[in-house]
Amino acid sequence: MASSHGTTTHNWHRPLPKVWDLPPQRIVADGLRRIREGGATYRLLLILCAILGVVGVVALIAGPVLAGWGERQPWTYVAVTFGFLMSTIGSAPCLSVATRLVRSHWRRPVNRLAEIWAAGMIVPLILFFLLVALLPNTEGRYSVWFGWWGAPWLWDSLLMVALVVCGYAFLYTAAMPDMAVARDQAGPNHNGRFARLARGFRGSVQEWRTIDRGVAYLGVLYVLLYVGTMTIIASDFILSLIPGNNSAIFPATYTVQAFESGIALTLVTAGIMRWRGGAADYLDREQFFALGKLQLALGLLWFYFHWTEFIIWWYGRTPRETALLKLLYFGPYFVPFAIAFALMFLAPLSILLWTRIRMGIAGPIVAGALVLVGQVFEQIRLYSASFSNVDLRLRELDFIPTAYVPGVWDILLLVGLVGGAIGLGLVTLKVVPYPSIWEVTGGLWLRARKPFYKTEVVVIGKPE
């Protein structure tokens, strides 16, 4: 494109997304199609996830449950699975909340993909109740509770239960208008179920106001509970189980890396839905470009927090800090740290730094997939160290415990329970329509194509 000064610049013009040219009838039909008929790929994935879920439960019982609650170390990969699920499916709904609050339009086809993962939160909740029994009382060791009655078991449990309940309420409230559409149009085989779920929703002005406010309030409450819960998890399940680790930065680091992984999970989900889910008209470059920018930003933020904590220990070099550096970075868990650092920071930076790649579809999806793999190794590093057999009454580590090597049951447990959580998300797609019919059709009324010199632009209206 030539400028008035005769210089040449790059033309970054992108085709306008197809979704905003679709009629409302087509959006309704696409949303209901996934409820009426799942397809061969859907059924195959559902069967595979069900098998993995059964394998995970068997591995859980045959491994740590039969070993008992006398020692923490046999429960290491239960904690790894719990941490991974909390950092991925637990944080994905926060993306929907954030994009709603800033009233972005590109998020309308994406929000439902982030929200639907709240359906899998029952899995980490069950794992939490198995793990919380391993926590000792707070007497004689560092803790954030300062002798509170019932700590850490009572308050951790209240936060976790409140988070899960709020997540389900948020998903249900956001999906209620679409359930009402399914009640009226999905057919006689489905309208009985959706009549119960839609609870008489008819789309009056007052009902829409209630939905808008309910989604906003529940979403904000979910984010607040999520940040608080992740802070407590980082403190009680990691920091306080490593003698001498009293980092004030780590809970923030742990929460930021969870946000990064939630975006990565949404990216990968969107890629799969575009590739095999028939959602190519809804998930275009606009969505992947925006998610890619968020993925890059959160990767840089995670590195900033990690570096801030690391540099204090590196230059402090007290015996306590040296022991922590050896345990978490340069000793038995150097390999998981190196893999996590490469996949959660270096890989997204190297891929998404380039505008042409970031504006594509494959680049952000690949970056998101690598972040998810890196998150597995980050959880292995953290929970393998915190669930080591050490005396928690020590003020600092007096020896570096050896690395925990996972067994067959550990690997099956991790893969199986993650597969089971994915299966719950797939089942939810038969109840909660995708795309979000009311949000995508609502976006149609706020966009209009207008000619602008020799091209065409989209004029976007901002509600309220």
Q: Name the structural class.
A: mainly alpha
Number of domains in the coordinates?
A: 1
- The share of residues in helices is 55-70%
Number of strands: 2
Largest sheet strand order? 1-2
Discrete helix count: 17
Please state roughly what percent of the residues sit in beta strands, choosing from under 5%, 5-15%, 15-25%, 25-35%, 35-45% or over 45%. Answer: under 5%
Instruction: Report the major sheet.
Output: 2 strands, antiparallel
List unreliable stretches of 5+ residues: 1-12
How is the topology of this model organized?
Layout: H1 24-36, H2 40-67, H3 76-88, H4 92-101, H5 111-115, H6 122-132, H7 153-185, H8 191-198, H9 205-237, H10 250-276, H11 285-316, H12 319-330, H13 334-352, H14 355-358, H15 362-386, H16 408-428, H17 437-444, E1 447-452, E2 455-460
Account of the protein in words:
This protein is mainly α. It has one domain (about 40-460). Helix content is about 65%, strand content about 5%. It is built from 17 helices and two strands. The protein has helices spanning about 25-35, 40-65, 75-90, 90-100, 110-115, 120-130, 155-185, 190-200, 205-235, 250-275, 285-315, 320-330, 335-350, 355-360, 360-385, 410-430, 435-445, and strands spanning about 445-450, 455-460. The chain has a two-stranded antiparallel ribbon with strand order 1-2. A hairpin with a 2-residue loop joins strand 1 (about 445-450) and strand 2. Helix 1 (about 25-35) packs antiparallel against helix 17, helix 2 packs across helix 16 and helix 9 crosses helix 10 (about 250-275). Residues about 1-10 have low confidence and may be disordered.
